[in-house]
Structure formats: structure tokens, C-alpha cells
Amino acid sequence: MKKIIIILGILVSNQIFAQTFGEYYEYIYAAEHNLLNGNAEIAAESYDKAFETGLMKQRDLYLAASNWAKLNVEKKAFEFLIHAIETGYMDKAWLQNDTAFNKFHESKIWWMSLALIDQKMTDLDTNLRQQLNDMLSADQKHRGTIDSLSELFGWESETVQTAWANQKAIDEANLLSLEGIFEVYNYPGKSVAGDLSDVAYYILQRADLETQQKYFPLLKQAVIEGEFSMTKLANFVDRMKVQEERKQVFGTQIIRNPKSAAYEFYPIHDPDLVNQRREEAQLPPIEYEAKFWGIEILP
């Protein structure tokens, strides 16, 4: 009897979490939708309701803080900003360039927030962070201009092909540097690289499938050790599945239908259980993803 009660308790607990998870992302979706449409006050209410569910993701905390700063509500802005920093936000340069906070640059709480980021970064590997930051800058050196160049000259033009060739050479150099980092650190996670720990993941995404498969165990181990995001690991898994021409697992990969040009999900393995897998990966329900991309037919 006790065993039955325990099992029922677990099932009920899982169901409540699933409902909370879905509710959280419904509010986050509403907040982001209203932000895009310039409805800052409605977005602020949606963020507040999302956090009332008990879930708080670092990215959402920062966006909520920035939005409250736009509304000139200092208390709420810094309440969420400090919470974001406490959960790992460290991008001091981005924060300093966020114009929403300009009006608070002379306030005590602003300097306290910057000092809190500095304190969080004390134990990080400065040289590693500089190397990763340089790699990230190089990764975007030509990618940021290729779209605009293609509109001017066309995808097949010599100008665009030269830009791609230059970027490809950078990608190869970055990968060599990353493999050297892997030899020293395994995966350079949060405890040594802080907010730049994701750079290794971005660089590895540029590699060929064989290289991704080779280093995938490092990413898995980093997740186990709390050094890397399960959400990003899920995305990485799905990307590899697409390259292998196999069904994706978590439903993170979106493609365009060649006939209708509409967005749709790349085929998903066992789609009836995809939301269960997405919960485990801390991803929003697939209905949220569909709504974001304007996908009407779910897998």
C-alpha cells in the first residue's frame, strides 16, 4: 500500500511540475510577444506572473530587469537583475551597454550590481576567458556581414564566397584552439569560464559530425557535473541527429517546407513523449515552440 501511495505521489508531483512548467512558458511567451510589440507594461506583468510559478530562468530574469528599468521602476529592475546575477549572469559589458539602465548609472544599487558581477568572476580563469572571448569575436567576424553582402551581390557572388572562405578558415583555427582547451580542461565549464563557457559549445557546432561525436561525451559529463546546460545539450543532440538523417529527440530543430516555405519541425522520434523529454532538458513545451515559429500542425 505504501508503495502505491509513493508512486501516486510521484505521478501527481510530476503532473504539477508539468503544469507549472507549461504555465511559466505561457507567461514568458506573452511577455516576449508584448516586448516585441512595444507593450512594456503588459510584458512586465507577464514576467511577474511567470516568476510567481516558482520558476526563474536567468535569461528571463535579465529581460524582466531590463524591461522594468525601461519603465523607470528601480526597485523591480534591480531585484530581478541581482537575482539574475546570483543565478550566473556575468555579462558586465552587455549590462553596461544596456540603455535601459542608463538612468541608474549614478545610483548605489547600480555600482553594487557591477561589484557583484566582479565578485562572481574572482575565481574564474582569466586567460581562458580571454581566449574564449577572442574565439567568439572571430566566430562572428564575417557571419555578421554575409547576409547583407548576399542581398547586395547574391549568394553565389565572388564577394560572398570570399567572405565564407575567410570565415571557414577562422572556424578551422577556432576548432584547433578548442581542441587544445579540451585537452587541458575537458569541457571549459561555468566554474572556470563563467558566462563564456557556452563559447566552446558554439564553436563545436561549426565542426563536422565526426568531430562533434568525438567530443559529445565531454558535453554530457559537463552536464552531470553542473558545468554545462542540459538545454544546450539537447539542442546539440538534435543537431547531430539531423546531420545523421535520423529523427530528432527534443524537437529543437525547425526547418522550412520546400513547397510552402512554412516552418515545421524536423521529424521527431516518439512525438507523444517529446514534452516529457523537453521537461527533463528544461525546455518549454513544444506548443510554445510551435507558437513562437507560427507552426500550426504539431508533430
E-strand count = 2
CATH architecture descriptor of the domain at 2-120:
Alpha Horseshoe
Please identify the top-level CATH class of the domain at 2-120. Answer: Mainly Alpha
**Main sheet overview:** 2 strands, antiparallel
Based on Cα principal axes, name the global outline: globular
Low-pLDDT segments, ≥5 res = 5-17
Give me the Rg, rounded: 21 Å
Task: Summarize the structure in words.
- With 299 residues, the chain is an all-alpha fold.
- The protein has a domain at 2-120: Serine Threonine Protein Phosphatase 5, Tetratricopeptide repeat.
- 68% of the residues lie in helices and 2% in strands.
- The protein contains 15 helices and 2 strands.
- A two-stranded antiparallel sheet has the order 1-2.
- A hairpin with a 6-residue loop joins strand 1 (254-256) and strand 2.
- The longest helix is centred in the N-terminal third of the chain and has 35 residues, at 2-36.
- The two termini are 39 Å apart.
- 27% of the residues are buried.
